[in-house]
Specification:
Rossmann fold; 2 domains; 7-stranded parallel beta sheet; about 45% helix; binds ligand GMT
Length: about 375
């Protein structure tokens, strides 16, 4: 199949999922065309069947806002015609589903039929999409998609609660390539980060408000009072500076390492003992799954799709949002005793296997085939 994938090319989970999906589909013989405004960060190698087409938005001083949707839909039209793309898979409804629908209509006008699969990722529904300023356009473009998927049961429920959706939503959970997360302790260079007797606690995110970054620092503050530990803070975002200041105020700056954005997530997770994800909401929590795949147990909140990923008392623990004392106690429970830590590490790995890329990607292939069949009959 020739598949066009539209996504955000940044470090956010939706872009990562879209990229990993495209790469796996290409290994399975499909021709993949990524169409976005810059090369996705996890897309390192282009090949015969992995292509990247950049969307340019020419600056024009009259425009207060440059019209990305317009440029994207025009690019989609051109790429579908040039490469014979058979199906468009758009990740994140805003504005991708909307732009894809426009492209579909322009193509239909020329007798070319291309169905659209829209995958909802979370904030396109829970935080941004349901805002009254966007809601009519988001509702319209979800309803006009030929197939709609969501990354968790929880996100499906939220979508049905917040929007008037007439389409079936199929849950296809996010996935992980377990082969990429085979931790080999000797490769990790753990010694560069901490002493042997110190536990390594890690947080990875784009450090926006929704991630509750101050809680990461506060939980770690409580951990390091009980046992020797270091905190690895990975990612960039508006809450990072506040976190640096809070660490300083609490007198733990020497124990907190800020990495910025990293393409070496596997290496960082390889030497981590515990992952903190105290988010206010999380449709799935791909970062938690990546941690678990590297045998790192997870202390998270119990909101959104997190309970579908992290199993309380098994792969880690779940707490209410902002329940810092509870999260700290759970973290210490896991970290204090090596035997307990090793049990949780093994459980985390075992739980991650439920999201094996080889079991999930065929679900998308089946959706493409079914959607193509239905769409071509209907048109
Ligand atoms: O969480 C973020 O800040 C990034 C965001 C995105 O849109 O890329 O992540 C969302 O999609 C991920 C992939 O499906 C999910 O794992 C995240 O849970 C979800 N984030 C939220 O719901 C806050």
């Amino acid at each position: 199949m020739k598949i066009g994938i539209v996504c955000y090319p940044t470090f956010g989970g939706s872009g990562v999922v879209a990229t990993e999906l495209g790469l796996e589909l290409s290994k399975r013989g499909h021709e993949i065309h990524f169409i976005t405004y810059s090369q996705p960060v996890r897309l390192e190698l282009l090949s015969n069947n992995v292509h990247f087409h950049e969307v340019h938005v020419p600056e024009y001083s009259l425009f207060h806002y440059q019209p990305y949707e317009l440029a994207l839909s025009s690019k989609l039209v051109d790429m579908v015609k040039l490469h014979g793309i058979q199906i468009l898979h758009v990740h994140y409804a805003i504005p991708h589903a909307y732009a894809a629908y426009m492209a579909q209509q322009m193509l239909l006008d020329e007798g070319i039929q291309v169905p659209i699969v829209t995958t909802l990722h979370g904030t396109d529904i829970t935080l941004v999409g349901s805002h009254p300023f966007y809601k009519p356009a988001v509702t319209f473009s979800i309803n006009k998609s030929d197939a709609v998927t969501s990354v968790s049961e929880s996100l499906k429920k939220d979508t049905l609660r917040l929007f008037n959706i007439k389409k079936d939503i199929e849950v296809v959970p996010n996935f992980i390539d377990l082969e990429k997360h085979v931790s080999s302790f000797t490769d990790c260079q753990r010694a560069m980060m901490a002493e042997d007797h110190e536990r390594i606690v890690t947080h990875i995110s784009n450090m926006r408000e929704v991630k509750q970054i101050p809680d990461v620092i506060k939980v770690f503050y409580n951990i390091q009072k009980e046992l020797p530990a270091k905190l690895m803070m990975v990612g960039e975002g508006p809450e990072k500076e506040g976190a640096e200041l809070l660490a300083e105020e609490l007198g733990i700056s020497d124990k907190v390492i800020f990495f910025g954005n990293s393409n070496e997530i596997d290496r960082i997770l390889c030497f981590s003992d515990l992952f903190l994800l105290p988010s206010q909401t999380e449709s799935f929590g791909l970062a938690a799954l990546e941690a678990m795949a590297s045998s790192v147990p997870v202390i998270s909140t119990n909101t959104g799709g997190l309970p579908e990923v992290n199993i309380d008392g098994y792969s880690g623990y779940l707490s209410d949002v902002n329940a810092v004392a509870d999260m700290s106690a759970n973290a210490i429970k896991i970290l204090k005793n090596l035997e307990t830590l090793n049990t949780f590490k093994a459980n985390a790995k075992a739980q991650s296997k439920n999201f094996d890329i080889h079991n999930i990607v065929p679900k998308y292939e089946a959706i493409y085939e079914e959607t193509l069949d239905k769409f071509l009959v209907a048109n």
